[in-house]
Amino acid sequence: MSKSSGGSQGRARRVPGLRQLRGFVRRDRNVPAPSPSVEVEPPPAADVPESLGDWYHRIELPDGTVTPGDRDQSLVYALYDAYLPADLTGRSVLDLGANAGGLAIEFAKRGAYVTAVEYSSRYLFQAQWILEAFGLTERVELLRGSVYAIGPLPQYDIVCYLGLAYHLRHPQLALDLIAHHCSDTLLASSQTITGTGLSMTNRATTHAAPGHTVADRPPGFLWGWEPTEQLFVDMLYSAGFLDPSVVSTSPHRGETPGRKCGNRTYGVAHAASKPARVAIVDDEPLQAIAGHWSRL
Ligand SMILES: C[S@@+](CC[C@H](N)C(=O)[O-])C[C@H]1O[C@@H](n2cnc3c(N)ncnc32)[C@H](O)[C@@H]1O
Questions:
Q1: Which residues of the chain have pLDDT under 70?
Q2: What proportions of the chain, in percent to the nearest 5, are helix, strand and coil?
Q3: What is the average pLDDT score of the chain?
Q4: What pLDDT digit, counting tens, does each position of 140-185 carry?
Q5: How far apart are alpha carbons 58 and 255 in whole angstroms?
Q6: Counting atoms of ligand 1 from 1, which one is nearest the CA of 99?
Q7: Which atom of ligand 1 is closest in space to residue 189's alpha carbon?
Q8: What are phi and psi of 118, to 5 degrees?
Q9: Neighbours of 199 (CB within 10 A)
Q10: What residues are in contact with ligand 1 under a 6 Å CB criterion?
Q11: Which residues, listed in sequence order, are joined to residue 265 by a DSSP beta bridge?
């Protein structure tokens, strides 16, 4: 993890398309203050964690309270322990689709500075509450917005793209973007379908949403994509990552028995010095989203 990264320093900035959540204490005082943050107010602090809505992450707080989710991110961290430095002091981490920050706090506890990007303000309020409970608000920056809007962010030593790919309409586009923000290690997971081919399926065929089974779904209903494990690895290569490998192929032990809707393929890969996407079919959306314009 030797490459330089702007991720741990001066990250409190105005980021078009991403909105900073209140409470984060800026570390670099030379950087201008961001504009006022979220418009929505978090629910009152009483009766937490239940008052903060449904939880996905199961997190044990320092006072013994356990949040009522069923995904234990300390177990996900354990999966990757051997692939990460023991001492993360000063490392920068970008956690995409961070949810309630279960994984972000694992990194922060070990000394890393984390930027957590999450789409849902409900999960971000949960994350904010979690960070306050752990006293880690100075180590984790919460940004509300989409993975597609990370263009203005710097590079990070470690990027987590866990449990997000299969929610996206454009999973390869997201990976191509992510490759530009990772200076060292990528952790990536996805639900995957069985088989050895290079195919992916509309996730509606395997995890039918209520009222949207394959039989009764509206035409064109797309509930994300599930690739084969081989394709998932290929997608990492295609985004320009080196040596992608599979770390685990089963949902982690933190998941509720019977709710086997978890990530089946956990991978790790490393950044090339300059991401060179393989076999580009049509790079225009990436250029547009990343903000690369050229004048005639
Ligand atoms: C299945 S959860 C995974 C959460 C966490 N990364 C984990 O592995 O436990 C997917 C998360 O991604 C968020 N999400 C979905 N689409 C997103 C997007 N386009 N950009 C950022 N986050 C998104 C969801 O709100 C949700 O918190």
A1: 1-17, 20-47, 208, 251-263, 275-283, 290-296
A2: 25, 20, 55
A3: 81
A4: 999 999 999 998 899 999 999 999 999 999 999 999 999 999 999 9
A5: 9
A6: 27
A7: 8
A8: -145, 145
A9: 12
A10: 56, 71, 73, 97, 99, 117-120, 123, 146-147, 162-164, 167-168
A11: 190
Structure tokens at 285: 């959306």
Considering the entire predicted model, what is its pTM?
0.85
Q: Distances in Å between the alpha carbon of 174 and those of 162, 177, 185, 215, 263?
A: 12, 5, 16, 30, 17
Give the closest residue (by CA) to ligand 1 atom 27. Answer: 99
Ordered by where they begin, the domains of the chain are: 19-289 (3.40.50.150)
Two tokens at 210?
A: 């209520």
Residue nearest to atom 22 of ligand 1 (CA): 97
146 alpha carbon – ligand 1 mean position (Å) = 9
First to last CA, the chain: 40
Q: What is d(CA 286, CA 201) in angstroms, rounded to the nearest whole number?
A: 22
Rounded Cα distance between 151 and 154, Å, is: 8
How many helices and strands in the chain, by DSSP H and E? 6, 10
For the chain, the maximum distance between any two Cα atoms, rounded to a whole number of angstroms, is 61
Half-sphere exposure of 52 (CA within 13 A, CB side): 24
Name the strand (E) or helix (H) holding 193.
Answer: none
Question: Which ligand 1 atom sits nearest the alpha carbon of residue 149?
Answer: 20
